[in-house]
């Protein structure tokens, strides 16, 4: 069996698409000292509210050990807080702070402009279709 050509390889196409989407986000975040991983964490916490670390790692597309290391520095930076779970003292519940929300507010306009530019270039309908297809592909793993 032969391998697909790299220009028609799904893993490579997804990586190329990721770079196309993430490049302007990295530029946006570059002056703030916030990495794209930290950006995902505070966005998830802002949208979902306090979360247990394992659920947060999954929602932010991070490996749990990587998230655990990041949380220490994010807590020191005042972007989030961690508390012991009420039902299970072994679990850590992570919450966004006002400083974390300020980072989101400070970048909201630029982030919206990046999304609007992508939508204008790719097309709103095609973008929604792409998101639906990627969601369906992701649902296949469960």
TrEMBL record:
Q: Which UniProt keywords apply?
A: DNA-binding, Transcription, Transcription regulation
A Gene Ontology biological process annotation? negative regulation of DNA-templated transcription
Q: Which Pfam families match?
A: MarR (PF01047)
Which InterPro entries does its entry note? HpaR/FarR, HTH_MarR-typ, Tscrpt_reg_MarR-type_CS, WH-like_DNA-bd_sf, WH_DNA-bd_sf
**Example GO molecular function term?**
DNA binding
Q: Please give the coiled-coil regions recorded for this protein.
A: none
What PANTHER family does the record point to? TRANSCRIPTIONAL REGULATOR, MARR, TRANSCRIPTIONAL REPRESSOR OF EMRAB OPERON
Q: Which NCBIfam families match?
A: HpaR
Q: What is this protein called?
A: Homoprotocatechuate degradation operon regulator HpaR
Which species expresses this protein natively?
Sulfitobacter aestuariivivens
Q: Which gene encodes it?
A: hpaR
